[in-house]
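Quick one, T. Sequence first:
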Amino acid sequence: SYQITATNNPTSFSAAALPAGLTVDISTGLISGTPSAQGTSNISLGAANSSGTGTLNLILTINPVGGQAPIITQHPVNRSIGVGQTATFSIQATGTPAPAYQWRRNGLNISGASAPAYTTPIATLSDDGSVFACVASNSINSAVSNSALLSVGVPTITPFSALSAAIAFPTPYKPSIHGNGITFNNLANDPSVHIKIFTIKGELVQELHNTGGGVSLHWNVTNKDGQSVASGVYVYQIRDNAGNEKRGKLLIAR
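Structure tokens:
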């Protein structure tokens, strides 16, 4: 039901273009009844007294019993691919009736892209920066997903680093099995190589310097105060004066 209210003491009410099944009480202004079909109607309301009639438009939407507008529960995410590859975007939505899907690229509908997942054609550089989104809709309403960015690039060759082959062993390290420490190997006989070991929170634990210019350095698994470090995950950073760097993780299990 819907109650028409008005100021200045109206003596009668009206409602034009009511959906089938609804009526208005002209003396009280109460709209009531059981609509026979779903849909949206533009109703002209009226309230009259001896001085004239005031009007107002009312948009009335009738939903199916038990219906629910679409709700997007999983939005598409950004994708980065190389030239000649494809990218897949996906969405999840709930609603009653079950929603239909329509994917958009740069704001325009993609023909035939009406599934919860959409895979692009083979990408070229011209596709870099394209924006994808999806509309989930049913007879009640529609919802638009967040936008997802497609980045397309050419492969980049990683330059060789003099420390690329550097390794730390053993890891995981167990004192009862592996003796008294961890060895860093393949340090390129470079006296400028230095190693920093951090906790997983970024706190400096120990620093080693390859002053002898050898291919390896040994860490006795103690901190800068000479105390044995606790079990846990640690991060190491190997660097030289040329700017080469190698990072990795260590697991210590006492």
